[in-house]
Amino acid sequence: MDNQRQPSDPYILTGRNPIREALKNGRDLEKLMVQRGELSGSAREIVSMAKEKKIMVQVVDKSRLDEIAPQHQGLIAFASAYQYSTVESMLSLAAERNEPPFLILLDGITDPHNLGAVIRTAECAGAHGVIVPLHRSVGLTPAAVKASAGAVEYMKVARVSNLNQCIEELKKRNIWVYAVTMNGVDYRKVRFQGGTALVVGAEGEGISLLTEKKCDERISLPLKGKIDSLNASVAAGIMMYAVMNQRGE
User: Are residues 31 and 96 in the same domain?
Assistant: First the structure.
Protein backbone atom coordinates (compact mmCIF):
# COMPACT_ATOMS: atom_id res chain seq x y z
CA MET A 1 0.00 0.00 0.00
CA ASP A 2 1.27 3.51 -0.86
CA ASN A 3 1.39 5.60 2.31
CA GLN A 4 3.68 8.38 1.14
CA ARG A 5 2.37 11.89 0.88
CA GLN A 6 1.51 12.95 -2.67
CA PRO A 7 3.09 16.13 -4.12
CA SER A 8 1.07 19.33 -3.74
CA ASP A 9 0.67 19.50 -7.52
CA PRO A 10 -2.56 17.54 -8.24
CA TYR A 11 -1.32 16.66 -11.73
CA ILE A 12 1.73 14.76 -10.46
CA LEU A 13 1.03 11.16 -9.46
CA THR A 14 3.51 9.08 -7.46
CA GLY A 15 3.30 5.60 -6.05
CA ARG A 16 2.44 2.51 -8.02
CA ASN A 17 -1.12 2.08 -6.80
CA PRO A 18 -2.27 5.65 -7.65
CA ILE A 19 -0.69 5.44 -11.09
CA ARG A 20 -2.13 1.99 -11.76
CA GLU A 21 -5.61 3.13 -10.72
CA ALA A 22 -5.36 6.24 -12.90
CA LEU A 23 -4.54 4.02 -15.87
CA LYS A 24 -7.36 1.60 -15.07
CA ASN A 25 -9.88 4.43 -14.76
CA GLY A 26 -8.93 5.94 -18.11
CA ARG A 27 -7.46 9.18 -16.76
CA ASP A 28 -5.50 11.02 -19.44
CA LEU A 29 -1.78 11.11 -18.66
CA GLU A 30 0.74 13.29 -20.45
CA LYS A 31 3.65 10.96 -19.74
CA LEU A 32 5.05 8.36 -17.39
CA MET A 33 8.60 8.80 -16.09
CA VAL A 34 10.33 5.53 -15.14
CA GLN A 35 13.55 5.07 -13.19
CA ARG A 36 16.37 3.66 -15.26
CA GLY A 37 17.34 0.10 -14.35
CA GLU A 38 15.67 -3.19 -13.57
CA LEU A 39 11.91 -2.93 -13.02
CA SER A 40 9.99 -5.12 -10.60
CA GLY A 41 6.85 -6.96 -11.65
CA SER A 42 4.35 -4.26 -10.64
CA ALA A 43 6.39 -1.51 -12.31
CA ARG A 44 6.64 -3.54 -15.52
CA GLU A 45 2.88 -4.02 -15.43
CA ILE A 46 2.29 -0.27 -15.12
CA VAL A 47 4.70 0.52 -17.96
CA SER A 48 2.97 -2.07 -20.13
CA MET A 49 -0.45 -0.55 -19.36
CA ALA A 50 0.84 2.92 -20.25
CA LYS A 51 2.25 1.76 -23.57
CA GLU A 52 -1.01 0.00 -24.43
CA LYS A 53 -2.82 3.28 -23.86
CA LYS A 54 -0.35 5.15 -26.12
CA ILE A 55 1.06 7.17 -23.21
CA MET A 56 4.63 8.38 -23.60
CA VAL A 57 7.06 6.50 -21.35
CA GLN A 58 10.31 8.29 -20.53
CA VAL A 59 13.22 6.47 -18.85
CA VAL A 60 15.22 8.77 -16.56
CA ASP A 61 17.82 8.58 -13.81
CA LYS A 62 16.67 8.24 -10.22
CA SER A 63 18.04 11.72 -9.45
CA ARG A 64 15.54 13.25 -11.90
CA LEU A 65 12.63 11.57 -10.12
CA ASP A 66 14.05 12.61 -6.74
CA GLU A 67 13.91 16.25 -7.85
CA ILE A 68 10.18 15.99 -8.54
CA ALA A 69 9.01 13.77 -5.67
CA PRO A 70 11.43 12.02 -3.28
CA GLN A 71 9.12 9.08 -2.48
CA HIS A 72 8.38 8.03 -6.03
CA GLN A 73 8.87 4.23 -5.99
CA GLY A 74 10.57 4.51 -9.37
CA LEU A 75 7.55 5.94 -11.21
CA ILE A 76 6.04 9.40 -11.65
CA ALA A 77 3.06 10.15 -13.88
CA PHE A 78 1.95 13.56 -15.12
CA ALA A 79 -1.80 13.82 -15.52
CA SER A 80 -3.47 15.95 -18.18
CA ALA A 81 -5.23 19.07 -16.94
CA TYR A 82 -8.20 18.41 -19.21
CA GLN A 83 -9.76 15.40 -20.90
CA TYR A 84 -8.79 14.77 -24.53
CA SER A 85 -11.36 14.38 -27.27
CA THR A 86 -11.01 12.40 -30.51
CA VAL A 87 -10.63 13.28 -34.19
CA GLU A 88 -13.85 11.37 -34.88
CA SER A 89 -15.68 13.56 -32.40
CA MET A 90 -14.41 16.66 -34.21
CA LEU A 91 -15.67 15.37 -37.55
CA SER A 92 -19.01 14.52 -35.97
CA LEU A 93 -19.27 18.07 -34.63
CA ALA A 94 -18.66 19.48 -38.11
CA ALA A 95 -21.39 17.23 -39.50
CA GLU A 96 -23.82 18.30 -36.76
CA ARG A 97 -23.19 21.94 -37.65
CA ASN A 98 -23.50 21.13 -41.36
CA GLU A 99 -20.06 22.66 -41.91
CA PRO A 100 -16.98 21.40 -43.78
CA PRO A 101 -14.43 20.16 -41.23
CA PHE A 102 -11.93 22.76 -40.08
CA LEU A 103 -9.02 21.34 -38.06
CA ILE A 104 -5.66 22.55 -36.74
CA LEU A 105 -2.76 20.09 -36.49
CA LEU A 106 0.34 21.04 -34.50
CA ASP A 107 3.72 19.45 -35.18
CA GLY A 108 6.49 19.89 -32.63
CA ILE A 109 4.87 22.67 -30.61
CA THR A 110 6.47 22.28 -27.18
CA ASP A 111 5.55 25.64 -25.60
CA PRO A 112 2.34 25.28 -23.56
CA HIS A 113 1.56 28.97 -24.02
CA ASN A 114 1.61 28.54 -27.79
CA LEU A 115 -0.73 25.57 -27.53
CA GLY A 116 -3.08 27.48 -25.25
CA ALA A 117 -3.09 30.46 -27.62
CA VAL A 118 -3.84 28.21 -30.61
CA ILE A 119 -6.75 26.58 -28.75
CA ARG A 120 -8.15 29.99 -27.87
CA THR A 121 -7.89 31.33 -31.44
CA ALA A 122 -9.28 28.09 -32.89
CA GLU A 123 -12.36 28.47 -30.71
CA CYS A 124 -12.81 32.08 -31.80
CA ALA A 125 -12.31 31.23 -35.50
CA GLY A 126 -14.89 28.45 -35.53
CA ALA A 127 -12.54 25.48 -35.91
CA HIS A 128 -13.83 22.05 -34.93
CA GLY A 129 -10.69 20.84 -33.19
CA VAL A 130 -6.98 21.00 -32.48
CA ILE A 131 -4.84 17.88 -32.93
CA VAL A 132 -1.47 17.30 -31.25
CA PRO A 133 0.91 14.34 -31.59
CA LEU A 134 1.88 12.12 -28.69
CA HIS A 135 5.61 12.75 -29.12
CA ARG A 136 7.62 15.95 -29.65
CA SER A 137 4.72 18.09 -28.56
CA VAL A 138 3.20 19.65 -25.48
CA GLY A 139 -0.21 18.38 -24.42
CA LEU A 140 -2.96 19.61 -22.14
CA THR A 141 -0.69 20.54 -19.26
CA PRO A 142 -1.90 22.97 -16.58
CA ALA A 143 0.06 25.78 -18.25
CA ALA A 144 -1.50 25.10 -21.67
CA VAL A 145 -5.01 24.92 -20.23
CA LYS A 146 -4.46 28.17 -18.33
CA ALA A 147 -3.10 29.87 -21.46
CA SER A 148 -6.25 28.90 -23.37
CA ALA A 149 -8.14 31.32 -21.09
CA GLY A 150 -11.14 29.00 -20.81
CA ALA A 151 -11.30 28.06 -24.49
CA VAL A 152 -10.41 24.43 -23.72
CA GLU A 153 -13.92 24.13 -22.29
CA TYR A 154 -15.35 24.65 -25.78
CA MET A 155 -12.62 23.48 -28.17
CA LYS A 156 -11.98 19.79 -28.75
CA VAL A 157 -8.33 18.74 -28.46
CA ALA A 158 -7.21 15.29 -29.60
CA ARG A 159 -3.88 13.55 -29.12
CA VAL A 160 -2.78 11.07 -31.80
CA SER A 161 0.07 8.58 -31.72
CA ASN A 162 1.05 9.24 -35.36
CA LEU A 163 0.42 12.63 -36.96
CA ASN A 164 1.26 11.39 -40.46
CA GLN A 165 -1.30 8.59 -40.25
CA CYS A 166 -3.83 11.12 -39.01
CA ILE A 167 -3.16 13.30 -42.07
CA GLU A 168 -3.65 10.30 -44.35
CA GLU A 169 -7.01 9.55 -42.70
CA LEU A 170 -8.14 13.17 -43.05
CA LYS A 171 -7.25 13.15 -46.74
CA LYS A 172 -9.40 10.02 -47.19
CA ARG A 173 -12.28 12.09 -45.74
CA ASN A 174 -11.79 14.67 -48.52
CA ILE A 175 -10.16 17.16 -46.16
CA TRP A 176 -7.47 19.24 -47.87
CA VAL A 177 -4.35 19.47 -45.72
CA TYR A 178 -2.21 22.62 -45.86
CA ALA A 179 1.32 22.82 -44.44
CA VAL A 180 2.12 26.29 -43.11
CA THR A 181 5.76 26.72 -44.18
CA MET A 182 8.34 29.29 -45.21
CA ASN A 183 8.41 28.26 -48.86
CA GLY A 184 4.81 27.83 -49.94
CA VAL A 185 2.20 29.71 -51.93
CA ASP A 186 1.18 33.10 -50.53
CA TYR A 187 -1.85 32.25 -48.37
CA ARG A 188 -3.74 35.21 -49.86
CA LYS A 189 -3.80 33.40 -53.20
CA VAL A 190 -5.28 30.21 -51.77
CA ARG A 191 -8.98 29.33 -51.84
CA PHE A 192 -9.86 27.43 -48.67
CA GLN A 193 -12.89 25.50 -49.82
CA GLY A 194 -14.42 22.37 -48.36
CA GLY A 195 -12.80 20.45 -45.53
CA THR A 196 -9.62 22.19 -44.38
CA ALA A 197 -6.78 21.18 -42.08
CA LEU A 198 -3.89 23.51 -41.25
CA VAL A 199 -0.60 21.96 -40.13
CA VAL A 200 1.57 24.33 -38.10
CA GLY A 201 5.11 23.54 -36.93
CA ALA A 202 7.30 24.92 -34.20
CA GLU A 203 8.90 28.31 -34.59
CA GLY A 204 12.33 27.89 -36.17
CA GLU A 205 12.17 24.13 -36.77
CA GLY A 206 8.91 24.17 -38.67
CA ILE A 207 7.05 21.06 -39.78
CA SER A 208 9.01 17.81 -40.01
CA LEU A 209 9.99 16.92 -43.57
CA LEU A 210 7.95 13.72 -43.75
CA THR A 211 4.84 15.43 -42.37
CA GLU A 212 5.23 18.29 -44.83
CA LYS A 213 5.40 15.80 -47.71
CA LYS A 214 2.15 14.21 -46.54
CA CYS A 215 0.29 17.51 -46.91
CA ASP A 216 -1.59 18.46 -50.08
CA GLU A 217 -0.20 21.98 -50.38
CA ARG A 218 2.33 24.33 -48.77
CA ILE A 219 1.21 27.84 -47.89
CA SER A 220 3.16 30.76 -46.44
CA LEU A 221 2.78 34.15 -44.82
CA PRO A 222 4.67 36.99 -46.55
CA LEU A 223 7.35 38.58 -44.34
CA LYS A 224 8.65 42.09 -44.98
CA GLY A 225 10.74 42.61 -41.87
CA LYS A 226 14.19 41.35 -40.91
CA ILE A 227 12.89 38.49 -38.74
CA ASP A 228 12.45 35.34 -40.80
CA SER A 229 9.62 33.67 -38.90
CA LEU A 230 6.52 34.36 -36.86
CA ASN A 231 5.56 32.92 -33.49
CA ALA A 232 3.75 29.64 -34.15
CA SER A 233 0.50 30.68 -32.48
CA VAL A 234 0.50 34.01 -34.33
CA ALA A 235 1.03 32.30 -37.70
CA ALA A 236 -1.69 29.80 -36.88
CA GLY A 237 -4.06 32.60 -35.87
CA ILE A 238 -3.60 34.50 -39.14
CA MET A 239 -4.20 31.35 -41.16
CA MET A 240 -7.27 30.38 -39.13
CA TYR A 241 -8.86 33.74 -39.74
CA ALA A 242 -8.05 33.51 -43.45
CA VAL A 243 -10.02 30.26 -43.53
CA MET A 244 -12.85 31.76 -41.46
CA ASN A 245 -13.09 34.84 -43.70
CA GLN A 246 -13.36 32.74 -46.84
CA ARG A 247 -16.13 30.72 -45.25
CA GLY A 248 -18.12 33.90 -44.90
CA GLU A 249 -18.31 33.81 -41.12
Answer: no
